[in-house]
Amino acid sequence: MRLENKAAIVTGAGTGIGRACAKRFAKEGAQVLIADIQAEEGQAVVDEIAEAGGEARFRETDVREPDQNERMVEECLDAFGGLDILFCNAGVTLAAEITETSDEDIDHLLNVNVKGGMYAARAAVPHMLEQEGDSSILFTASKTGLVAQEDSPLYCASKGAAVMLAKALALDYADRGIRVNALCPGIIDTPMLERYIEDLPNPQDAWQEFRQAQPIGRLGTPEECADAALWLVSEEARFITGVALPVDGGFTAE
C-alpha cells in the first residue's frame, strides 16, 4: 500500500500504459481519477479497479483544452479531498517526415503531447503547494525524448519537450514539496503500437524488428512501465526529482 491515502490523476488512462498505471496506483492504495477522451475505455478501467477493491472515478477530459484540465483537477479535489499525484500520460504518435505533415498534424501532436501536460501541471501546482506533504508530477515522455529516430521529427520534438518540462518544473519546485519526473518508455506492447504496426505493409516483419530493436530482445509491457511509474511517484523515490527514466530494455544504452 505504497500510495495509501493518496489522491492521483492519470490522463490517458483508458488504455495502454495509462490503464496499467491507474490500476497499479489503485492497488497500492491511491484514489484515482481516470481522465481520458475515450469515455467507454475510461469507465471500463474504473470498473476494473472497483472489482479489485480499489477506488476510482472517471472524468471525460480532452487535455488539449485548458478549462477541461482545470475541471479535471477540481473534480479530483472534490471527490478525494486533495491531489498528491498528477501523471500526465495522455499522448499521440506521428510517424512521418516533416515535409509530409500538415499544419493540423503539428497542432494536434503538440496540443496533446506538450500543451496537455503544461495545462494539467498549471492547474494542479497551486493546489499541491497549498496542501501538507509532498506531491509528485510525472510525465510520460519516450526514449525518443532522449535519442532521435528516423521519420518521427515532430514526435521526437514533442517528447523532448516533455523531458525538459519535467526537468524545469523539478527545479522550480524542488524546495516546495513537489517532485517532477519523466518516464521514458521504449517500444511497449500497447494498443497504440498494435494499430501502428498493423497498418504497415508487412506487420509480421515489423513486430520482429521492433522486438530486436531493444537489447533485451523483446517488447516492454504496460505493467513494467507501471512498476517504474509507481516507484517514481512513491515515497521510495522521495530524493528523486528532475529525472528522465528510460524503461526501454536497454535501447538508450547503445
Short précis:
This protein is α/β, with parallel strands linked by helices.
Protein topology:
Elements: E1 7-11, H1 16-27, E2 31-36, H2 39-51, E3 55-60, H3 66-80, E4 85-88, H4 103-130, E5 135-140, H5 153-173, E6 178-185, H6 191-198, H7 203-213, H8 222-233, E7 244-247
Parallel strand pairs: 1-2, 1-4, 2-3, 4-5, 5-6, 6-7
Describe what this molecule looks like in 3D.
With 254 residues, the chain is an alpha/beta fold. The protein has two domains: 205 residues, NAD(P)-binding Rossmann-like Domain (Rossmann fold, 3-Layer(aba) Sandwich); 32 residues, no CATH class. Helix content is 47%, strand content 15%. The chain contains eight helices and seven strands. A seven-stranded parallel beta sheet has the order 3-2-1-4-5-6-7, with helices on both faces. Helix 3 packs parallel to helix 4. It is globular, with a radius of gyration of 17 Å. The model has no long low-confidence stretch (mean pLDDT 96).
